[in-house]
Amino acid sequence: MNIATRLAPDRRLVTSFIDGAAAATGPGTLIEVIDPATEQVVGELREADAGEVGQAVAAARRAFDTGPWPRMSSDERKAILYRIRDVILQHRDELLALEVMNTGLPVASVAWQVSRAAANFEMFADVASTLAGQTFTQDPRYLTYVTREPKGVAALIAPWNAPLALASMRIATCIAFGNTCVLKPSEYTPHSILRMVELCHVAGLPNGVLNLVNGRGHVTGESLVSHPGIDMVGFTGGSETGRSIMAAAGRNLKPCILELGGKSASIVFDSADLDQAIDGTLMGIFSNNGQQCLAGSRILIQRSVADRYIDAFTRRARAIRIGNPLDPNTEMGPLAFRRHMERVLSFADIARAEGGEILTGGKRAEGFDAGYYVEPTIVLAKDNEARVCQEEIFGPFASLVLFDDPEEAVAIANASAFGLVSYVWSNDLAVTMKASRDIRAGTIWVNTPMMRELRAPFGGYKESGIGRDGMSSSADFFTELKTTSIPYGRIAIPRIGLGG
Ligand SMILES: NC(=O)C1=CN([C@@H]2O[C@H](COP(=O)(O)OP(=O)(O)OC[C@H]3O[C@@H](n4cnc5c(N)ncnc54)[C@H](O)[C@@H]3O)[C@@H](O)[C@H]2O)C=CC1
Ligand SMILES: O=C(O)/C=C/C=C(\O)C(=O)O
């Protein structure tokens, strides 16, 4: 199937979507959208300038100040969010095709991500509709109660590596609590997101609650996050970008929730079920074409099992089926865009220069006329100080480091600027318990590849982020707490100002 030819001419151009309608075609810069599997131009987006961003923020503000959404009962909002879930699932194939066309991710992994997008809306509808309040009676003459109110208008910035799953997470956590927002997806992956935004309106989301602006980060993104009319910023993406977004938001004293990069340690102890650890560490680094913040990109291996592990891991990596992302048998597709592919490949030269041994890969995959295909790459690093162990590469690039005992493994895992997740492979309970206690990361997965429990807090230590997504954590970020105290009857108030 060549989905490039399936986009109708009127679906090629992506514009802003403001107050429930596509923005009229204006003079904005046109930016080509390229299918990374074919390198063909499959559409363009018309970049929103500061003026158009202002219109989107104004629409979100109107919807917040005077629209029905923040004033609905949580059950009414829940009914609409459930309909969004249903409409997403009804349009699964269409969303899937657009997502594959924009990202180059294998169709099998995108299928899971469309389900995840639907689950995000369901999950946060449930969370918001079951929020419990608090009461206090320290002074028995009073009832003091705490209510949660929506915080306002959010700027939401989404990445390109799993656009539907991650943008929907930001949208759902924001609007479920009665807020309104302006979303800016990545300029590389606008088509699936535009369709999802349209579908949210088909499902009955009131106009102005979810507005969309498209464009590059330094143009549309910067205008949005520095706009004085927004009340908060939600961002998923790289740590450097997170730094500038937080600085821009900070100038207006706006809070941020940042889900950033990682260089997560996947630790293979000699007490592991080695076959399972090999399956899990392969998924950890090579799934989603290696483009995941939560990738297990630093694999630490206990020296006593290193030969066996490395031999099997390398053999299996070489056997990964690279190909057309629309083929259900494909295990790895192309990287998302040319500049990113070149950056990932540059780390092979860096690895060699710093004394690492490339066990496999380090070059473009052969046999393709077009597409940003890269071979699964494995480097045995000289040590954990190497740049390939310290910098987020964000591609199918595994950096291996050896260790002798559990204490050393934890020390290496922690010797990183990042702290998003860690994977622990061991059947020794004490080893797993100590590792999970001592590793400084937001999530520890023991004997399992990525497993997202959406209710639990998810986010990073250190440069991997600020704040957490999840039940109470999302509620804390996306609502204001209001304390009200009311006496049970007329109280005696000291009478001042009666003197003469
Ligand atoms: N989920 C994650 O953790 C992701 C991590 N990355 C990491 O970041 C590196 C750089 O990739 P990029 O494509 O440059 O990702 P990025 O983090 O710059 O892009 C993510 C989003 O931020 C927007 N953006 C960029 N600069 C902005 C600004 N100043 N203000 C507001 N919005 C802005 C982009 O347009 C996009 O929508 C990758 O190599 C990878 O290491 C990239 C994407 C996702
Ligand atoms: O599951 C989440 O909420 C976040 C996942 C983040 C990534 O997979 C990513 O950014 O790569």
TrEMBL record:
PANTHER family: 2-AMINOMUCONIC SEMIALDEHYDE DEHYDROGENASE
Name this protein carries in UniProt: Aldehyde dehydrogenase
Alphabetical list of PROSITE patterns matching this protein: ALDEHYDE_DEHYDR_CYS (PS00070), ALDEHYDE_DEHYDR_GLU (PS00687)
Keyword NAD among record annotations: yes
Active-site annotation: 259
Keyword Oxidoreductase attached: yes
Domain called Aldehyde dehydrogenase: residue spans: 28-483
Signal peptide: none
UniProt superkingdom: Bacteria
Keywords assigned: NAD, Oxidoreductase
Similarity remark: Belongs to the aldehyde dehydrogenase family.
Pfam families, per database record: Aldedh
